[in-house]
Amino acid sequence: MILTAAALMGAIGLLFSIFLVIANRKFAVEVDPKLARIEEVLPGVNCGGCGYASCALYAEAIAKNGEELNLCVVGGADTTRDVARVMGVEVSGEQREKLVAVVFCQGDNEASKFPGVHKGIQDCAAAIYSQDVAKRCKYGCVGMGSCVKSCPFDAIHLSDGGIPYVDAEKCTACGNCVRACPRDLIELHPVSHNSFVYCKSQDPGPIARKVCSKACIACQICVKAAAKDDNADAVTMDGNLAVVTPDPYAAKPEYGEKCPTNAYSCGCNSVNKARVLGHEPVGGERVPVGTA
Amino acid sequence: MNYLLVLISAIIVNNFVLTYFVGICPFIGVSKKIDSALSMGIAVTFVMTITAIVTWIINHYILIAFGLPFLEYVSYIVVIASLVQFVEMFIRKTSPALYKTLGIFLPLITTNCAILFVALIQAVRELGFIESLVQGFGAGVGFTLAIVIMAGIREQLELSDIPKPFQGAAITLITAAILALAFMGFSGLTSS
Predict the structure, then answer these.
(1) Which of B62, B79, B85 has the CB atom closest to A8's CB atom?
(2) Which domains does chain A have, with CATH numbers?
(3) Helix (H/G/I), strand (E/B), else coil: A96
(4) Lower CB density within 10 Å: C or N end of chain A?
(5) Which residues on chain A are in Cβ contact (under 8 Å) with B96?
C-alpha cells in the first residue's frame, strides 16, 4: 500500500517535471546577464535623477538601448566607472562637475514679512492655490517645505526663517526639489559656483524692496561692476532682475560687494550655507565624472 | 441540457467566490483595475479548466483504480503547482506587461483555494468527465465575472468621497459582502 502510494506520487511528480522542463525550454525568456549586474552597481535609491523612474529601468536602458553611462547623479564617478566595467567600456577622461541644488530666494520670515498664516495642506502649491501664502513676495519661496519632502537624501531643510537651504555634501543633484518647487526657485549648479543673485523677483525696484528686504531691486550695481571688470557677460539684466551667467568661472563674488540688499552672493545660501554649517564643500575643485 | 445546468450553476448560482467564499485572496488583491482583473480571471479560468480535466483523470484512472483516494490532496496540489508554473512561463514569454501587472498573484494561483475546490468538489458531486470540464470552465468564468464586477466597482470607489474610517480595506470588504448578498438572489434559479 505504502509502496504503491509512493511509486504513484513519484510517477506523477516525474511526469509533471518532464512536462515543465520541456515547457521551460520552449518558453525560455532571454534575460541579459549584464542587466542584473548593472542594477547591482547602481545605488538603488530610485530617485529619478537620471530621467528614469527607477534604477531598474535605467539599467534596462543602458543594457538594451545603449543609454549614456554617466546619468546617475547619485553615484557619480564611482558608479559610472562600475557600470562601464560591467559593460566592458573604457571610461574616457571627459569630466563633469558635481552639481548641487541652489535655492534662489532669501526671503525668510524676517526679510519678507507675512500677512497671514496658511492653515491648509502643508504644501507649497496648495498654499499658492488657496491664496494664503505666508510670504509677501509673489515670486519668492512659500516656505511650506515641498522641496524638503521631495528630497530622498535628507539634503534640503528649512531654516528657522522658513527658507530652504541645501547641504552640498548630501545633495546628489537628483532634481526632485527642482521639480517640487511651484515657483521654480531651485536650480542645479556646479558646486564651485558661488556667485549668484539669490532672487527671482521681477517686481520693479521700489515694490521689490517693499515686500522683501533681501530682493534684487534692479539697481544694476553688480552689472556695472562686471562691465568695469571687462566681464560684461557675467551678470546681465533680465527685466527687473540681475542674473548671473551659468558659467561657474565667469562671475566673481566681488561684483556683489556693493549690493544694497545682499541679494548678490550672500553667505547664507546653498554652497555657502554648507560652509557655515561646518561642512567643507568640494568648492573650487572639479569633481571628475567620466563618460563612456 | 444537463451541461448547461452545470455551467450556469457554476457561473452564477453557485459562484465560487461569492457563495462558497473560496479564492478571496486574488478577488481582493487583483481587483483594482478592470484590465488586470480580466487577465487574472482568464489565467484562473485556464488553470481551473485544465485542472478539472487532469484531476478527473487522475482521480478515476489512478487514485480510485489503485484504491488510494487519500492521495487526493497531495496529487492535486502537484497538478495545480505544475499548471501554474506552466501558465507563468507562458505569460512571461507572451506578455511581459501582463506578467508585471499580475506580479505575485500569478504564482499565488497555486495556493488559490478555488482551484483545489474545483478539483475536490467534482469527486464529491460525482460528476462525469464532460461535466467536470464544464464545471471547471464555469467556475473560472464565474470567478472572472465576480472579479471584473468588483474591479469595476472599485474603480468607481477610487473617485468617491469615502468617510475616513471606511477607506481602503474596509470599503472593499463591505463591497464584496454586498456583492455576495446580490448573488444570493440567484439561488433557486437552478437546483444543484
Answers:
(1) B62
(2) 33-87 (1.10.15.40), 101-276 (3.30.70.20)
(3) coil
(4) N
(5) 29
